[in-house]
């Protein structure tokens, strides 16, 4: 009997890498460009939220009463241009063990994808300097969804289409650094892994099915995702 290969969906910020605030700085600068309103980065809670939702909050805060698709598109283009420059000036840093763990999961037969609140192009810009885009041919992103559960469901759909495999939520594992990632994974019907490389302690992530200090814990993660068949690789 062959089990369907598991699908593993990774959050980006503070799970795979830190962009050292480049996303928040770029977005607030783009907003200031378009509205003249400067919002202090400390006053905004970005983590675990989708960019789509964040755009809504920020525009409300900046007094944009009618957030049209046209305005949103201008904000996105301004943001992405700034993000490219920020990332070039201060490249993101990968979290401990990331590339090795992704290699190991792939070698053991897992399919990898993204489930992130970033815009797709934003996620790709952050992952690119680290050579991590090659691991993720598809995913769910924050371009159109305010609710992170919808991002996870969209990721499962996109990965199924890309790989020609009907992945189900029950065969999916969501990996992230915030309680919002865990909550979204659970609501989507997936198993969940919390990694304490962000602003949340292991205790704060205890709602996950597995909690790791960081992604260098490759063996524990591989065994959780793949079962005993992962252990033969050492
Ligand atoms: Mg995160």
From the structure above, extract its key features.
single chain; 234 residues; alpha/beta; Rossmann fold; 2 domains; 6-stranded parallel β-sheet; two-stranded antiparallel sheet; 12% strand; globular; binds magnesium ion
Explain what this protein looks like in three dimensions.
There is one protein chain. By secondary structure, the chain is α/β, with parallel strands linked by helices. It is built from 8 helices and 8 strands; from the N terminus they run ββαααβαβαβαβαββα. The two termini are 24 Å apart. The relative contact order is 0.18. The structure holds magnesium ion. The site of magnesium ion has 9 residues, from loops.
Short description:
The chain is an alpha/beta fold and 234 residues long. It has helices at 22-35, 51-61, 69-89, 98-107, 120-127, 148-163, 179-188, 218-226, and strands at residues 7-10, 17-18, 93-94, 111-115, 139-140, 172-176, 191-195, 210-212. It has a six-stranded parallel β-sheet with strand order 5-4-1-6-7-8, sandwiched between helices.
Number of domains: 2
CATH topology group of the largest domain: Rossmann fold
Low-confidence stretches: none
- What is the mean predicted local confidence, pLDDT? 94
CATH architecture of the largest domain: 3-Layer(aba) Sandwich
Tell me the distance between the termini.
24 Å
Order of helices and strands: EEHHHEHEHEHEHEEH
* CATH C-level name of the largest domain: Alpha Beta
Q: Helix content range of the residues, please?
A: 40-55%
Total count of helical runs of at least 4 residues: 8
Q: Name the hetero compounds present.
A: magnesium ion
Biggest sheet layout: 6 strands, parallel
Number of strands: 8
CATH superfamily label of the largest domain: HAD superfamily/HAD-like
